[in-house]
């Protein structure tokens, strides 16, 4: 997977046990997701782009 292969905003994020960008299993939908994002540069880039995009939609910003 490369950065150009993923659209960080257009994801089907309906399963907290699966990464919405690469499809890998996530051991825990909270802390496990953040561990996965930190360990996978492509997913980290997609998550950061997604976070940046949606942060304007959240009144007090995004807290992670």
Taking the alpha carbons of the first and last residues, their distance comes to 25 Å
As for the number of domains, it is 1
Beta percentage is: under 5%
Helix content: 25-40%
User: What general form does the structure show?
Assistant: globular
- Strand/helix succession: HH
Pfam families: DUF7501 (PF24333)
InterPro entries: DUF7501
Protein name: Small CPxCG-related zinc finger protein
List the helices and strands and how they pair.
Blueprint: H1 31-39, H2 41-55
Structural key phrases:
globular; single chain; 2 helices
Description:
There is one protein chain. With 64 residues, the chain is mainly α. The protein has one domain. The chain has two helices and no strands. It is globular and about 30 Å long. The N and C termini lie far apart (25 Å).
Could you give a short description of this structure?
This is Small CPxCG-related zinc finger protein. Helices cover 38% and strands 0% of the residues.
């Amino acid at each position: 997977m490369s950065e150009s292969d993923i659209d960080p905003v257009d994801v089907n994020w309906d399963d907290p046990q699966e990464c919405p960008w690469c499809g890998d299993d996530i051991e825990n939908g909270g802390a496990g997701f953040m561990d996965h994002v930190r360990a996978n540069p492509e997913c980290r880039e997609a998550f950061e782009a997604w976070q940046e995009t949606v942060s304007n939609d959240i009144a007090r910003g995004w807290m992670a």
